[in-house]
Amino acid sequence: MKALVFAESEPAARELSAGARTLADEVTLVTFDDPVAGVADRVVTVTVPEGHPKEDALETFYQVYQDVQPDIVLVEPTRRLKTIAGRIAAREGASVITDAMALADGVATSMYFGGVGVRTAKAATPVTFVTVAPGTFADAEPSGTDAAEAVAFVEPAVPLTLVAREDLPPAEVDLTAAERVVAAGRGFAAEEQLGLARDFCQKIGAELGCTRPLTESETWFPREAYIGVSGLILNPEVYVGIGVSGQMQHMVGVDRAKVSFAINKDKNAPIFQQVDYGLAGDIADVLPKINAEL
């Protein structure tokens, strides 16, 4: 059995390649620009020329796909890789399974209806494309070659037109790799209050993420920090929700945490029904006291 991995980030390349090793005899990794050593039998890098968006690498990724002829394709669920993988799957008439949280014996487990339910699915075609949630193969160990090959960029027949490019501030942390995660919610009345959450994170060795309103309504966090069904799906050892109401759209992003805590001034907040430990109290009063004790 052959597996092909599409990944952008190094952590995802390592985890997905390690996971692919548990499913297949041969593993090929395709990534942009910088190779990742020791994770696959074959490592292929794609460099996109200046003036092209990375989505224009479609034909180059497809060329590698045709060369490998994989039985399964594991995909890091970034926007551009989902676009590339989806278009290749459409060409091949292949089954696509999204946001898999577990994958064994050809059966993928994933959430649906915004995380309300869990379903299992098996491909109806010889080749399966699977986008994989972070942490799915956290316990798998990668192995492979230190050599890498660069493939020539294949010009798309209909390239995308790059109208403008804007550099966004880089994300402060990779939440998918964090063992302890703190999420700030709408209970923070002002951006200045986030300093309390950052102090708390520093005390317990955690990384700070947020709920959707703080990335869109308030723009206090970069998009990469949003935890939830349309953001990051995490698998931390510890989760702490501060000022988080506990709506399902957010909680599905952290419901695999080993231990979970919540701080909210509303004692009837839904989050208290979904965590292991809860503290009812106002952020401005509770957090300074907690930080002083830590």
Automatic annotation (TrEMBL):
SUPFAM superfamilies associated with the record: Adenine nucleotide alpha hydrolases-like, DHS-like NAD/FAD-binding domain
All copies of the Electron transfer flavoprotein alpha/beta-subunit N-terminal domain together span 3-172
Q: Which residues form a coiled coil?
A: none
Matching entries from Pfam families are given as: ETF, ETF_alpha
Q: Which InterPro entries match?
A: DHS-like_NAD/FAD-binding_dom, ETF_a/b_N, ETF_a/FixB, ETF_asu_C, Rossmann-like_a/b/a_fold
Per UniProt, subunit arrangement is: Heterodimer of an alpha and a beta subunit.
Name of this chain's protein: FAD-binding protein
